[in-house]
Amino acid sequence: MRLVRISDVRKKELRRAAFEVLQREGMAGATLEKVAAHAGASKGIVLHYFANKQELFEHAMREANTALRDAVVARLNRAVTPRERLEAIIEGNFEERFFQPSICHAWLSLCAEVPREPQLARIQKVIHARMRSNLMSALIALLPKNECEHVALAITALIDGLWLRLGLQSNGFTREDALQQMRDYLACRLPHNIS
Question: How confident is the model at residue 6, as a pLDDT?
């Protein structure tokens, strides 16, 4: 059995606290002091593990995206057909525990920092590359090759847009609404006779 170091446990607690503060306060309102208070620690403890606010929130973003990635991978592992793979990717990106107004607010806050923070930009680039790769692996069996890239980009843009919508207008917009938008797009874009 692998022993877990106390420092690893503490870092994980601080990353989670940072993401929770980010959900409530946004990037502009999130401070190391608020993260420390939320985690039941001092600002000094936070700075012991993370060099600054940017590094802490970079790690929080990585952890949040790892959880989302794992949800998608778990669904992909159960998918058999290309169509099921596509549905797994889409449904995983709208999993109820993630597709919440507060999480969408935090995601928007972090995305707003991407142009100014090279580390966040790198994380975003990896996320988009992974999404493209997953989508292409399903689409290549469903569409002519020359259409796959276009459809993958459209699906990604629609997913991002629906997350943006929930982040900006939380009341009345649901996971089911988002999934229906995706189904409507796919019904128009994919052949009906392919599984």
Answer: 85
Q: What pLDDT sits at residue 194? A: 57
Rounded to 5 degrees, φ, ψ at 180 are: -65, -40
> Domain locations in the chain?
52-189
Cβ atoms within 10 Å, residue 181: 16
Please state the separation of Cα 119 from the chain's center in Å: 16
**R_g of the chain, CA atoms, integer Å:** 19
**CA 178 to CA 163: how far, in whole Å?**
9
Encoded tokens for 161: 């847009």
Question: Is 173:181 a contact under the CB 8 Å cutoff?
Answer: no
In this prediction, the residues of the chain whose per-residue pLDDT falls under 50 are: none
| Distance from C-alpha of 177 to C-alpha of 171, rounded to nearest angstrom | 12
CATH of 52-189, one of 3.30.420.40, 2.40.128.280, 1.10.357.10, 3.30.10.20: 1.10.357.10
Neighbouring residues of 86: CB distance < 8 A, sequence distance ≥ 6: 135, 138, 139, 142, 186
pLDDT tens figures, 123-172: 999 999 999 999 999 999 999 999 999 999 999 999 999 999 998 876 77
CB neighbourhood size of 1 (10 A): 3
Would you state the pLDDT for residue 169? 79
Of 65, 190, 68, the C-alpha closest to 123 is 65
Residue 195: per-residue pLDDT:
55
